[in-house]
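Supplementary Methods. Inverse-folding protocol.

Structures were first reduced to a discrete structure-token string of length 124. This string, shown here, constituted the complete conditioning input.
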């Protein structure tokens, strides 16, 4: 199995920045896509950004385009989410997710492994 550990969450002011990290360990011997999802209280879990194994393909939710950047360092089995120009509506628990294969789905059920989440709170 694959274990995912998120870090970097915390409290930020509106307009501020945070960088989330997702470290994968375990059976990471195949190519895999990585993605960031978030879930706010009372809301559905939604994909924020996703990146293919090579980084050639990326996905961003419309509401974060131009503000968030996903990137990865495969030598470290780590994905990152750089979040700039944060807004209060970005407040949520952010989850890292992984799936093996070359596809890059943006639906939660397509991902096999999940981290425990890291809280991001953006104050007004």
């Amino acid at each position: 199995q694959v274990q995912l550990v998120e870090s970097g969450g915390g409290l930020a002011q509106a307009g501020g920045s945070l960088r989330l990290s997702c470290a994968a360990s375990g059976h990471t011997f195949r190519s895999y896509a990585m993605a960031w999802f978030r879930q706010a209280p009372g809301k559905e879990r939604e994909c924020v950004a996703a990146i293919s194994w090579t980084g050639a393909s990326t996905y961003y939710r419309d509401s974060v385009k131009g503000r968030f950047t996903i990137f990865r360092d495969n030598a470290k089995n780590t994905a990152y989410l750089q979040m700039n120009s944060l807004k209060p509506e970005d407040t949520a628990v952010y989850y890292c997710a992984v799936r093996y294969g070359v596809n890059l789905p943006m639906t939660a059920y397509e991902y096999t492994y999940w981290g425990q989440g890291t809280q991001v709170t953006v104050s007004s």
